[in-house]
Amino acid sequence: MSREAFVNGEYTEYINSKVHIEDRGYQFADGVYEVFAVLDSKIVDYEGHIKRLYRSLKELNIASPIQRKSYKFHIYEIIKRNIIQDGLVYLQVTRGVASRDFKFPKNSKSSIVIIGKNTSSNYYNNNFNKGIKVKTTKDLRWKRVDIKSLNLLPPVLAKQYAADNDCEEAWLLDDDGYITEGSSSNAWIVKNKTVITRPVSSSILNGITRSTLIKSLSKVGYNFIERRFNLNDIKNADEAFITSATQFVMPVIAVNNIKIGNGRVGEFAQIFKEIYFKYISLS
């Protein structure tokens, strides 16, 4: 079966999907995006993602190309047309097409692209059972990473650096040596049954999975602290994990070849995974 995409108001075969060569997303990374997880053909935490999308658009002064209620319709159409059971949907909005100029175009129409794909139903569980390894590297991103923009070259380089060092994720270090977040995830540690992650600011993206897990942990009474942590904290941690729309809750078994705990998936990772899936919103 051929995949289908939604591009600027039209559904088309994925292989034939095209955007204009002077789309500002292509030339300036002038746009935003969201990634929606799909479980059992339903969208995970839709309202959180769409709210963040509109916040990102507002921060960059980009007009939404379609009405708010239309996003859900088109996402579900992509799920249906691509027969997605478990997988993801990627949605991107750019400022649109205009003659190349750093200044905003006056009358351009925003562009939208939506694509989706299936993932193996065992992919997540297999990775969870093994855990992942992390490599740290300097955070080279711009100062507004709270906006989910297309400015992704520093995270791309960080992720590749991790892969070149036989790791699945990179954790980014600020100028003071504290972890901001992962290249495509939020970073967490557990110490003495207390869950720790960095506070929300312009230095991190306020992950939707992060927010859902925090609310879920609060409901079941786990101790939780938002504070910065560094490599020394990581070395002394009992467990560590990441969260993201595609990785959900994923245990970290080593950072810079230093074992976390006993170097195996810990008990809290399994507990937090179960708590997260209990409280997620499927719509």
Q: By CATH's scheme, which homologous superfamily of the largest domain applies?
A: D-amino Acid Aminotransferase, subunit A, domain 2
CATH class of the largest domain: Alpha Beta
Known CATH architecture of the largest domain: Alpha-Beta Barrel
Annotation field: number of helices: 8
Low-confidence stretches: none
Strand percent estimate: 25-35%
Sheet with most strands: 9 strands, mixed
How would you describe the shape?
A: globular
How many strands?
A: 15
- CATH topology call of the largest domain: D-amino Acid Aminotransferase, Chain A, domain 2
Helix content: 25-40%
Nearest-integer average pLDDT: 96
Between the first and last Cα atoms, what is the distance in angstroms?
A: 26 Å
Compute the CA-based radius of gyration: 19 Å
Class by alpha and beta content: alpha+beta
Order of helices and strands: EEHEEHHEEHEHEEEEHEHEEEH
Oligomeric composition of the shown chains: single chain
Q: What is the count of distinct domains?
A: 2
Short précis:
The chain has helices at 24-28, 46-59, 68-81, 123-130, 153-164, 208-220, 231-235, 267-279, and strands spanning 4-7, 10-13, 31-39, 42-43, 87-94, 111-118, 132-138, 169-173, 179-182, 186-191, 194-197, 223-226, 239-244, 248-255, 258-259. The mean pLDDT is 96.
Features:
283 residues, alpha+beta, D-amino Acid Aminotransferase, Chain A, domain 1, D-amino Acid Aminotransferase, Chain A, domain 2, 2 domains, 9-stranded mixed sheet, 6-stranded antiparallel sheet, 8 helices, 30% helix, globular
